[in-house]
Every structure is written in C-alpha cells, then in structure tokens.
Amino acid sequence: MPKMKTNRAAAKRFKRTGKGGFKSGNAYTSHRFHGKTKKQRRQLRGLSMMDHTNVKRYRKMLSTISK
C-alpha cells in the first residue's frame, strides 16, 4: 500500500507540540482591528492550542509529521 501524503496546507498552518497536541495561529487577526479592544488584539497575537475535538482529524492530515 502506498504511503499517505502529508497535507501541505495543514503542515504550513499547524505545529505539533511535544505532548502530541497541535498549536496554530488565531483567526480574526488580519484586518478590522478598530472594532476590537486592546485586550482582544493582544491575546490574538500568540499561538493557541487546537481544540481536542479536531486533533484526530489533523493528526491524520499530518500523518508523516505526527510520529
């Protein structure tokens, strides 16, 4: 059976953590900041952990990276 290919779009957007979770950038960070508070903008800057309900799906997409 052939090897599974890594989904390259997902590989560019998500990084695997040491314990097996995934981290990614936040949504709502590209424009229209005048409607957001300073606190919202500050908290959107960093990376956030992916919700555990999505981890199984993305582990499959990133099959060659996730080992």
UniProtKB/TrEMBL annotation:
Residues 31-43 have a biased composition (Basic residues). Residues 1-43 are annotated as: Disordered. One of its GO terms (molecular function) is structural constituent of ribosome. Keywords: Ribonucleoprotein, Ribosomal protein. One of its GO terms (cellular component) is cytosolic large ribosomal subunit. GO terms for biological process: translation. PROSITE patterns: RIBOSOMAL_L35 (PS00936). It comes from the Bacteria. Belongs to the bacterial ribosomal protein bL35 family. This is Large ribosomal subunit protein bL35. It comes from Pediococcus cellicola. The gene is rpmI.
